[in-house]
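Bench notes, afternoon.
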Amino acid sequence: MEAFLLAQGGFGLGPGGGAPACPSQSAAQPPCPPEKLKAELRRLARRLGLAALGFVEARRWVRLQEELARRVQEGTYPAFCERNPALRCDPQQWLPGARSLWVAAWPYQPPRPAPQPAGLPQGRLAAYAICPDYHRGLRRRLEVLVRWAARRCALPPEAHFRVLVDTGPPVERELLRLSGAGVVGKNTCAFVPQAGSWVVLGVVVSTLAL
């Protein structure tokens, strides 16, 4: 388990949500030691504006599966989440041969809501919902990491990596905690030093042992 805190640069700070292109390399380089590869991924992640990047072994989490199953039984399990606890806790079902998970946190800074005239209906929105949709921007950044790592290690990306941004089974907050990149706060939100809870999460599943 290892994490590296990175400089802030959130998707609420500018338009477009684009990501820098994958750094060019003239040819695929030989695989390097895991520690060196992680250091290089962290440097690229910093350039992409991620607030934190953590790594955790891809293994089955039995206790987490039991906890999720208990919540399903009690009726306290979120309706919008994957209903199969076993699937959510077994990375081998996300990508056969998975050996590591990369957990990324992307910070955001929501704009201040504009004052509303008195007498009009009032409501509250989640802060991240006020910003541009994060799914595409975060996925692009994770895909840059994947393309770079695939080229660095001479691996076909479609067979050795899978990017998940709010569309797959992982319990992202728990993976963030396990990676050491952050914690789960009392407000049940992911908390990352230097960015607080103003982050969204994404996961890369990889066959690389990091």
